[in-house]
Amino acid sequence: MNSETLFSMALGLQPPWQVKAVTFSTDELARSELHLHIDFVTGSRFLDDANNLCPVHDTVERQWQHLSFFEHTCYLHCAVPRITTTDGKVRTVDVPWARPGSGFTLLFEALALALIEREMPVNRVAEILKVNPQRIWTIFNHWISKAKAADDPSMITKLGVDETSTKKGHHYVTLGVDLDEARVIHVTEGKGKATLQSIQQHLEDKGVDKEQVEQISMDLSPSFIAGAAESFPSAQITFDRFHVVKLLNEAMNQVRIAERKEHDALKGHKYTFLKNRENLSDKKEKELDELIQLYPTLGEAYRLKVLFNDLWEMPDKPTAEAFLRQWCDAVDAAKIPAFIKFANTVRGHWSGIVHFVESLISNGILEGINSKIQLAKRRARGYRNINNFINMIYFLCGKLKFDYPLYFT
């Protein structure tokens, strides 16, 4: 078996394609390259768009970078035929080893995407594959765009909305997540009211009526609330449990800070009051019991904090509302400013907080997605191009379906 036949088999070429020559070159910098020259059998005809066999009009030279052969960069070369179609037009034939317009083979692109999927930064992928990083981004963005166009969010009924930072400072993108499928369906720049409109427009473009979204989980952002009311008027809002608890913990910490200014014994006990009791060590739990006895204001704040979290276990809406009214009355009686402020926030977002006991949805899935996004951002040391960042979110968290070769998964 000669080398041309061997490489034809290795590339999986089918008639009329065949490797006609194999060359190996080394330049003055001792960089070696393997060149595989592909040809087609003389007299071959190729199918046009109407599925008719057409004669070759002429050829045009093309080159693609392929997977490396051992440590040697490999290139495929071919005089690609152009055919005269049945309607009299001249069209370049699509080759089976590469997509139109690409300078890489499908297997090369699949390897690049497999490396990215395995959490390797694009710059590192480019270094390994010996190409400019922008060329890897071009490959990446092509396949993301194609998969997004084919994506089907038609089953969505529960939508999660949250923002995540793109870089240091006030730069954000907003994520729209299908909570049932735990995947990102849309990413848009910014974090205001318009982001809800963008999510609704995306779903409409995909054939999903805004009335289909029955539930939305989000934080207490006024702009999100206004956007949801306008873009998804039929959806019931559940204010995300994790964001509500975060505000509660902030109130608890403000009380601790105020007490700490007068009592040195509270130094180093921030998380003693913020963690759940079951997550404390035996030593810290004992210290907690002592501190809430020594400092009555802090003890009452801690009691209110623990008590509030019973809300999430209420069996129904009437019970939850009765509990929450009693809790707010207890806060008023305690006269702790930070908790009064939090109670006023609860009153202002009453229905969306109470609705949790009926919907049982939260942005917990989004918190996990956000952690994955921030980890990818740190590995890449940030993204200067916002579109690259958005497409990386789709790639990591969109559960998109790709049709490139999956030999590396």
TrEMBL record:
InterPro entries: Transpos_ISL3, Transposase_DDE, Transposase_HTH
Family matches, as NCBIfam families: transpos_ISL3
PANTHER family: TRANSPOSASE FOR INSERTION SEQUENCE ELEMENT IS1557
Transposase IS204/IS1001/IS1096/IS1165 helix-turn-helix domain: residues covered: 93-143
Name assigned to this protein: ISAtfe-like protein
Residues annotated as domain Transposase IS204/IS1001/IS1096/IS1165 DDE: 159-393
Species annotation: Methylotuvimicrobium alcaliphilum (strain DSM 19304 / NCIMB 14124 / VKM B-2133 / 20Z) (Methylomicrobium alcaliphilum)
Short name of any one Pfam family annotated for the protein: DDE_Tnp_ISL3
